[in-house]
Amino acid sequence: MEPRPPTAAAAHARATLETLDLHCAGEPLRLVTAGMPEVPDLPILARRRWVRDEADWVRRALLLEPRGHRDMYGAIVLPAHRPDADLAVLFLHTEGYSTMCGHGIIALTTGLIEEGRVPATLPLTTLRWETPAGLVVAEAGVAMGAHGGPEVREVRFRNVPSWRERTGIVVAPEGVALHEAARARGGVAVELAFGGAYYGVVDVAELGLRVEPAATEALTRAGAAITEALRRSVQPAHPEDPDLSFVYGTILVDHDPASSPDGRARDATLRNVTVFADAEVDRSPCGSGTSALLATLAAQGRLRPGDEIVNAGITGEAFRGRHEGDLMVAGRPAIATSVAGNAYLTGRHTFVVDRRDPLGAGFLLR
């Protein structure tokens, strides 16, 4: 009989992984600070492939159960490869690897400055991030805290160019109840937009739902089903990099936060929940999703350069997104965007991956 192949935990014996944990508007960010195998100095997308092929056990161990959960999110910070960046970052989720993550940029910038892992300058510290989607520049407002160390008051990042890819898409998501107008149309109306990743943008009224915590289960089912329907019917083509040419998730937008049933975020411009990857729910307003929404509003003629929106997430916490100007990307209209928000440290952890543990490599129950 052939011997059973070792699990990830057994293959790496008793591995120790250290992390810095933060949250941004409720969305977790688990940064690997020690125990990660050495990643070769390669262009960022090649690094992402290397980590996926050679060190995916780290993602599984830290994000899946028993150490994480279905909606856990993570990051690996590396030395920059491109000369105009300070640091490189790979974003991790329970299905795989993201191309860009706005809440992650806000959390990482905050955590590295407040923990003294990068030098802080007052009143503004700038970090240039090399992401799989391109260069993202974060500016942190910094003051000295009562504890005597640097304290980040807010992070605003300038994202990669964003644009509306397509409009007029209609999909019929399986197992999702539709509101009267969507039923009459034969499906949900979707706009496809890019903000570092491709998202379907849907008015939540099409589903007869509101964006609030009480509706999380229904919103998750609907968002995941719409994403799957989009992936079957639409194949976006990124104009510069084919590795970015896929539908990442769906943004369900509530255009009337003033009447939010839970009483939260009533002064926001929009309220949304983003369901991405394998039915993960973003607790934050989603930073790259906010850029996609800004691009959608601009394409609709509802937003001009200099205009700002307050985009709230399902927790009620909000990001401020700004139209920073018109661009052209490979001959198509696009816009520059920036997104601002806050993040907070939640813990410093040492995790052990024990080779004797049959569940130590990570699993997901639901």
Tags for this model:
2 domains, Diaminopimelate Epimerase, Chain A, domain 1, alpha+beta, globular, single chain, 366 residues, 7 helices
Write a structural description.
By secondary structure, the chain is α+β, with helices and mostly antiparallel strands. It has two domains: 8-158 and 345-353, Diaminopimelate Epimerase, Chain A, domain 1 (Roll), CATH 3.10.310.10; 163-339, Diaminopimelate Epimerase, Chain A, domain 1 (Roll). It is built from seven helices and 18 strands.
Offer a concise description of the structure:
This protein has helices at residues 8-11, 44-54, 56-63, 102-114, 180-185, 216-233, 287-299; strands at residues 15-24, 27-34, 73-79, 87-93, 97-98, 124-131, 134-144, 150-158, 163-171, 188-194, 198-203, 247-254, 270-276, 280-282, 308-312, 318-329, 332-341, 344-353. By secondary structure, the protein is α+β, with helices and mostly antiparallel strands.
- Please report which band the strand proportion falls in: under 5%, 5-15%, 15-25%, 25-35%, 35-45% or over 45%: 35-45%
Number of helices: 7
The CATH H-level superfamily of the largest domain is Diaminopimelate Epimerase, Chain A, domain 1
Major sheet size, sense and barrel closure: 18 strands, mixed
Helix proportion range: 10-25%
CATH class of the largest domain: Alpha Beta
> Helix and strand succession?
HEEHHEEEHEEEEHEEHEEEHEEEE
Distance between the amino and carboxyl termini = 33 Å
CATH architectural type of the largest domain: Roll
Shape: globular
Task: Give the integer mean of the pLDDT values.
Answer: 95
List low-confidence stretches: none
Over the alpha carbons, how many angstroms does the gyration radius reach?
A: 20 Å
Helix/strand structural class: alpha+beta
Number of domains: 2
How many β-strand runs?
18
What would the CATH topology of the largest domain be?
Answer: Diaminopimelate Epimerase, Chain A, domain 1
